[in-house]
C-alpha cells in the first residue's frame, strides 16, 4: 500500500484521509494543534458549548456522499435538522424579514416584506440555477488547473457569457432588485467567501441559490459533531493521527515528494502528501522546490479573505424572540467593505452583526442561551489585534451595536470569550487569520484558486485555500477531487 501523509486535520484533511483510507491507502495525518477539526472548533465551559467556526451546513448531500463512500450513512452518526427560518434579517430602518428553509416559500416571504421583491428574487434565483448547472458539477467538483481548463469545461461560448465575469454581485443587485434592502441582502452573500460584493463576480448568485435550494442545516449538539463523526470514521478506517506535530517542510526529490519534516527534525517519509495547510503557507514556507515557483508567484497576487472577530456569550435567561440565525445590518454597509478592503483597513466602526443561538439543550444550561456573535474584521497584520486593550474595547463596541439594534444583552451576560484574527492565525495557521482562504474578489480569484494537483508530483492540495474554495461543502469537494486524482492503492 502507498504511504500517504495528510498535513492538517481540518475538515478537508479529514475528508481526504477518510476517502484515501477507504481506497486502501495507509494514511497518517499530522496536525499542529492538539485536536482535529481546524476552523470547525468548539468551546465548552460551565455547561455552555459554542461552535467557534461554521454554524450552518449547506449542500448536506456532499457529506452524505462522503460518509456513504467511506463506510456508512451520515444520518447514522449525526442528527441533521433543518434550520427554520434559515435566517432572520433586521435592516437599518428597523424592518425585518425571515427567509424560510423551504426555497419555494422564499418569494412569498420576501413579497410580504417588500411587495414585488419576491418575484424579482425568484427571477434572479432562476438565472442562478442555470449558473449552478454550469459551475456545480463541471467546475466545482472536478480538478481545475487554470483558465484553459475552465474554457474546456464550457460547452459553448454562450456558457462563458452566462458567467458574466465582468459584472459584480453589486451590479447584479442594482440591475435586478429594486428595493435597496434586498440589494443589501444579496451583498451579504459576498461575505460567505470573505469577499467584497463590489468586486465579487455576479456568478456568485449561486451562493444564495444553493443555500435556498438545498436548505440550511444544523447538527444537534453543534456542528463540531460533524467533525467528530468524520474523525471517528477516519479512525475506524485505520488512519493514524499525530497531534502537536508541526510540519516545517515538504521534502522532495527529482521524482516528486519524498516526505515531510517536523519541528524538532523528525522526518516522515511519504509517497504522497496531501496538504490541508493554507496554500500560501505551503508554497511560501514549506515547499522550496523550484517547481512551485509559478503557484508561488500567483499566490503573491492573491488577496486573502477577510477574517472575523468573535464573541462567545453565555447569557442568563431566554430571549423573547429567539432565532437560530440572525443578521443585523448597519445603515452604511459600504463603510464595512471600505474598512475591510480599503487602503487602510480598520475594525469596522458600525459592523453588520451575525448571531447564532441554537435552541438546543445540548449547548446551554436549561433556561439560558449560548450566543456566537461574529463581525467581519481585517486580518492580523492589517490590524494588530494583540495590541493591549484593543480586543476588549472592540468587544464592548460590538455589544453596544447589538444593543442599538434591539438586542441589549449586557445585563444578561454571565461571561464572554473573545476570539480575534490573531487567534485564528495562531490556531489554524491561516494567513492573518483569513477565515475563507483567499477572497473571491475578481473572476480569477473566484474560480482559479490553487489547483488540487501541485506541480510537484505526489503533492496535492485540499481545504479552503485550494480549488474549489472555502466552506464546509467546498472543502469536502476538494478532498474528493484530490482522492480521485490519487486513485486507489
UniProtKB/TrEMBL annotation:
Q: Which SUPFAM superfamilies does the record cross-reference, listed alphabetically?
A: FAD/NAD(P)-binding domain
Q: Which domain of life is it from?
A: Bacteria
Query: Which InterPro entries does the UniProt record give?
Result: Amino_oxidase, Carotenoid/retinoid_OxRdtase, FAD/NAD-bd_sf
Keywords, A to Z?
Carotenoid biosynthesis, Oxidoreductase
The Amine oxidase domain covers 11-486
Give the record's pathway. Carotenoid biosynthesis
Q: Where are the transmembrane segments?
A: none
PANTHER family named among the record's database cross-references = PHYTOENE DESATURASE
Into which family does the record put it?
Answer: Belongs to the carotenoid/retinoid oxidoreductase family.
Please give the name of this protein: Phytoene desaturase family protein
Q: Which organism is it from?
A: Saccharothrix lopnurensis
Amino acid at each position: 500500500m502507498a504511504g500517504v501523509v495528510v498535513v492538517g486535520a481540518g475538515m478537508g484533511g479529514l475528508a481526504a484521509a477518510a476517502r484515501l483510507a477507504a481506497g486502501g491507502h495507509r494514511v497518517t495525518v499530522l496536525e499542529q494543534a492538539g485536536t482535529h477539526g481546524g476552523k470547525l472548533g468548539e468551546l465548552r465551559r460551565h455547561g455552555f458549548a459554542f461552535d467557534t467556526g461554521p454554524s450552518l451546513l449547506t449542500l448536506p448531500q456532499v457529506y452524505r456522499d462522503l460518509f456513504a463512500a467511506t463506510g456508512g450513512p451520515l444520518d447514522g452518526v449525526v442528527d441533521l435538522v433543518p434550520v427554520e427560518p434559515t435566517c432572520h434579517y433586521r435592516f437599518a430602518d428597523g424592518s425585518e424579514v425571515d427567509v424560510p428553509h423551504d426555497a419555494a416559500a422564499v418569494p412569498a416571504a420576501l413579497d410580504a416584506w417588500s411587495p414585488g421583491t419576491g418575484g424579482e428574487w425568484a427571477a434572479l434565483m432562476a438565472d442562478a440555477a442555470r449558473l449552478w448547472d454550469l459551475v456545480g458539477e463541471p467546475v466545482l467538483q472536478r480538478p481545475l488547473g487554470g483558465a484553459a481548463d475552465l474554457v474546456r469545461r464550457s460547452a459553448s461560448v454562450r456558457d462563458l457569457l452566462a458567467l458574466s465575469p465582468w459584472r459584480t454581485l453589486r451590479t447584479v443587485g442594482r440591475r435586478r432588485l429594486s428595493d435597496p434592502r434586498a440589494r443589501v441582502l444579496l451583498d451579504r452573500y459576498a461575505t460567505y467567501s470573505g469577499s467584497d460584493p463590489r468586486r465579487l463576480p455576479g456568478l456568485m448568485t449561486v451562493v444564495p441559490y444553493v443555500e435556498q435550494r438545498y436548505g440550511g442545516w444544523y447538527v444537534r449538539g453543534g456542528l463540531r459533531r460533524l467533525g467528530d463523526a468524520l474523525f471517528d470514521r477516519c479512525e475506524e478506517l485505520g488512519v493514524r493521527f499525530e497531534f502537536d506535530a508541526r510540519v516545517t517542510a515538504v521534502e522532495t526529490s527529482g521524482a516528486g515528494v519524498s516526505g515531510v519534516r517536523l519541528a524538532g527534525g523528525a522526518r516522515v517519509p511519504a509517497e504522497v502528501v496531501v496538504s490541508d495547510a493554507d496554500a500560501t503557507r505551503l508554497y511560501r514556507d514549506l515547499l522550496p522546490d523550484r517547481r512551485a515557483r509559478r503557484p508561488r508567484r500567483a499566490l503573491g497576487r492573491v488577496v486573502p479573505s477577510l477574517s472575523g472577530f468573535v464573541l462567545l456569550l453565555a447569557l442568563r435567561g431566554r430571549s423573547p424572540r429567539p432565532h437560530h440565525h440572525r443578521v443585523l445590518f448597519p445603515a452604511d454597509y459600504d463603510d464595512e467593505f471600505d474598512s475591510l478592503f480599503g487602503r487602510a483597513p480598520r475594525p469596522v466602526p458600525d459592523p453588520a452583526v451575525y448571531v447564532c443561538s441554537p435552541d438546543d439543550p445540548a449547548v446551554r444550561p436549561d433556561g439560558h442561551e449560548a450566543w456566537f456573535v461574529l463581525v467581519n474584521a481585517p486580518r492580523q497584520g492589517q490590524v494588530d489585534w494583540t495590541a493591549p486593550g484593543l480586543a476588549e474595547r472592540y468587544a464592548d463596541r460590538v455589544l453596544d451595536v447589538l444593543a442599538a439594534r434591539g438586542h441589549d444583552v449586557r445585563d444578561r451576560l454571565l461571561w464572554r470569550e473573545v476570539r480575534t484574527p490573531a487567534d485564528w492565525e495562531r490556531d489554524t495557521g491561516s494567513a492573518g487569520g483569513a477565515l475563507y482562504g483567499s477572497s473571491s474578489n475578481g473572476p480569477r480569484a473566484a474560480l482559479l484558486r490553487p489547483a488540487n494537483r501541485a506541480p510537484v508530483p505526489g503533492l496535492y492540495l485540499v481545504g479552503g485555500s485550494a480549488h474549489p474554495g472555502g466552506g464546509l461543502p467546498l472543502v469536502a469537494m476538494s478532498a474528493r477531487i484530490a482522492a480521485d486524482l490519487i486513485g486507489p492503492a
